[in-house]
Amino acid sequence: MIDKKLAGEILDAALSTGGDFAEVFWENTKGQSILVEEKKIKNIGGGLSAGVGIRVFKGYFQTYAYTNLLDRESLLQAAKKAAHAIKGKSEQRIINLVDLEFENQHKIKTIPNILKKSERAEKLIEISDYMYGLNPLVKRVGAVDTYSMRQIGIANSEGVLTEDNQVRARIIINALVNRDEKTEQAIEGNIGGLVGSEVFENYDFKKIGEDVVRRAVNKLDAELCPSGKMPVIIHNGFGGVIFHEACGHSLEATTVASGTSVFSKRKGEMIASELVTAVDDATIPNAWGSINIDDEGTRVQRKVLIENGILKNYMIDKFNGRKMGEVSNGAGRRENYKYIPTSRMSNTLILNGKSSFEEIISNTKYGLFAAKMAGGSVNPATGEFNFSVDDGFLVENGKIKQQVKGAKLIGRGEEILKNIDMVGDNMSYSIGVCGSVSGQIPTTVGQPTLRVKEITVGGQK
Amino acid sequence: MRAEEFVNKLYEEAKERKLDQFQISYNYTLKDSLNMDEGEIKDESNNENQAVSFSVKINGKIGRFTCSDLDEKNIKEIIDQAVETAELINEDEENFFYDGSGKYEKVHAYRPLEKVKRLDRLAFLVAVNEAAKKADKRIVKVTDLSFQSEKRKEVLRNSLGLNVAEENECVFVYLSVKAEENGFCKEADDVIFFDKAEDFSAEDLGLRVAKKAIAKLDETGIKSEIVPVVFENRVFPSFLKFLSMACSAYEVQNERSKLAGKLGKPIASQILTVVENPHLEGGYATTSFDGEGYPTRYKEIIKDGILQTYLHNLKTAHKDGVSPTGNGSGSAGTCVSNFYVKPGADSKEDVLQAAGSGVYVTELNGLHAGMSLVSGDFSFGAGGFLIENGKLGKALKQITISGNFYQMLKDVRNVGNDLEFYGSGIGAPSVLVDGLMIASD
């Protein structure tokens, strides 16, 4: 999209007012989504997007200009706009752009757009058909198939010139059930990854369909959840959203560098129970949140965030790393060229502990078993978080009992981390979409089943 | 390629291909922002963007493809993809383009006051920052302070004769501030849009937000129980967003709303009236046409508790055999412009008096994950103050607030006279609701 020569010209223009670092980012994305509802093709969304973002640093100040007018003149104009806010004199420097090659860690089997729209829709209709036949209470079945092919390129004044191709696919299936006057819904969205059309082959869709219908039907008999402070057992997989919100965001240099995060300047301190070891690993092959290079062109890593409760590392991007006196560890991400990249998560996981799932349940006299979480949010400045529980169950005398609904968990991140008193050995991870200052990006969350000895549960009773 | 040129070429190509009904929408945005940290500018941004969307109607179905890479080489693919999509969609409903007939109201949407152009943005931010930090020694950090402006142009034209355009601009300053005492932190924020004279006082903004943050520090717990709740006028709009979805003919026809079959029936308290006024003078979402180019009009959605109308786009209106209501979003669903609760007679203090005891909610969190539209059950994280003896008491530790949205509409007991729009078309006055479940941290 931008050749070496043009990249060099843009960087020169960007540095013409004395900036000490410049970067040009280009992006070209093709995306598609197919919606099947009631076994009919309801909608097909598709688009092409392309744009360029130019950044200049001077000390602790950065400027940014993005545009999708992609002719040479407009791009140089944008570079000058970015340079304009820096009131200095250009220092002569020669930038030697060197192609940074790397081996693709996430090979895909089938490029998505090779599979025709009609064929993709046919597969969704097949799954829907199966699900309608599972239970007469099933009122509506919907399925969405999405994919994106995102090509990015980065050139910077340190001489880096690098490109990558990110292919992602995801399928979401939902069922609405109805009995008398009650309607409930269940969704499964953990289908996909940094993969191509092989997504249709990698899963047992019959089993997924059965699971979705069963969960929706069970919700019809769920009672309202009681309120109060109690032990909460958070199941594996998407349960990891707890850590993502309670801790993850507060460990991004985005808020650590400015001192806003509650975990700023606390490396080496105990911020969680000693049972907790957590990583942010962007290298997991073909996981939804994985990448080869971040959106600043830095090779990604597996970062140990917390080890046995002790804060080890933050997630760091170039700009915020400056303020912290630390080098980027490949966490600079953005939704697209319209955003300034900043430290974000990738695949954020709590690692296995020593307890089994059965032990955790049987060891709990009274509490809530959050079998499926539904998302939440956090304020990194105060550490206050909230999560919704999708499928919950009361646990009484070491046994899983009545299903409950409508529970919301709240608290402060650090409290919840320190109150983890049992960690299971069944780690799994799940697809999520994370929204923050640099837009929405694909991330996964994961953990084994774990128990927090006390969380405030807001219910309807 | 410039968008106008691209759109013309795209239009010509579509005509060449003998496409009978097609539509092109185009938008162009110019944005800039200035972000401050610790009294210094940490980043400055200057951006422009353009995007085009092409739709075509074939056999009663509309297929669409969007493109923001406005290169002539993409024109063939844009049309091919939209045509393929239109031919594959096989739902029963017919979809439509609008021909641009009828009366379009001349409207005056929100505009920042002229003098904002002469404002020294950097000096303004510096003054806000100082006022906030000096306000109290417990103010430990200005966590977010930015000056942003945006200009946007939208054009919608089709082969049936529709040709409408709109230009909007927005200038705002956002401030959030962190206060700390005894190891506990609280944050408060506000945003100003420079459409009122008082918005030009940097000191007022800094001081006001700092005070809000300090007021939250002295927090107390509350027993978990069902209590009357007064929603601050800034916060109730979150529920109105859900209402706009529950009233959407798109959600109703897809059996995702409990308001199906309730036209003309009481769905809310008698004192609740909710209107949509797309022509509101200076309104933040004021517009003369909807996302499908259909002329907008004033309407009552709920009048004295009774559901008056669903929100329709061209497709849903045709399916129900009614006139479109000018709420087309331009894609599958519907949207609203200026959408608000008609204010009552009581002041905010009267509303608190009417509550007697309970909770005054000033923030809601986790909205994206906490509400089920099909059942109406919700559970959100929240922040606010105790109401004791009809007056505001201590700040509350983080709480959860739970209930059922459809039931809550019926339990509205008092509506204040303090209708406000905080930079959004969706606005509300203070609203008192009978009983919601509160659990405290």
Q: What does this protein structure show overall?
A:
The complex is a heterodimer of chains A (461) and B (441). Chain A is α+β, with helices and mostly antiparallel strands. Chain A has helices at residues 4-14, 72-84, 117-132, 205-219, 241-248, 253-256, 318-324, 357-362, 413-418, and strands at 21-37, 40-58, 61-67, 98-99, 138-156, 160-179, 182-193, 223-224, 228-234, 278-281, 302-307, 310-311, 332-333, 342-343, 347-350, 366-379, 384-396, 399-405, 407-412, 420-423, 428-436, 439-447, 450-458. Chain A has nine helices and 23 strands. In chain A, the strands form four sheets. In chain A, strands 1, 2, 3, 4, 5, 6 and 7 form a seven-stranded mixed beta sheet that branches. In chain A, a hairpin with a 2-residue loop joins strand 6 (160-179) and strand 7 (182-193). In chain A, helix 1 runs parallel beside helix 2 (72-84). Chain B has 441 residues and is of the alpha+beta class. Chain B has nine helices and 19 strands. In chain B, the strands form three sheets. Chain B has a six-stranded antiparallel beta sheet with strand order 3-2-1-4-5-6. In chain B, helix 3 (121-134) packs parallel to helix 4 (202-215). The model of chain B has no long low-confidence stretch (mean pLDDT 95). Classes of the chains: A alpha+beta (461), B alpha+beta (441). Chains A and B meet through strand 2, strand 3, helix 2, helix 3 and strand 7 of A and strand 2, strand 3, helix 2, strand 6 and strand 14 of B. Strand 3 of chain A pairs parallel with strand 2 (40-58) of chain B, so a sheet runs across the interface.
Integer-rounded radius of gyration of chain B: 24 Å
Distance between the termini of chain A: 58 Å
Low-confidence stretches of chain A: none
How many strands appear in the DSSP assignment of chain A?
23
Q: Strand content of the residues of chain A, in percent?
A: 35-45%
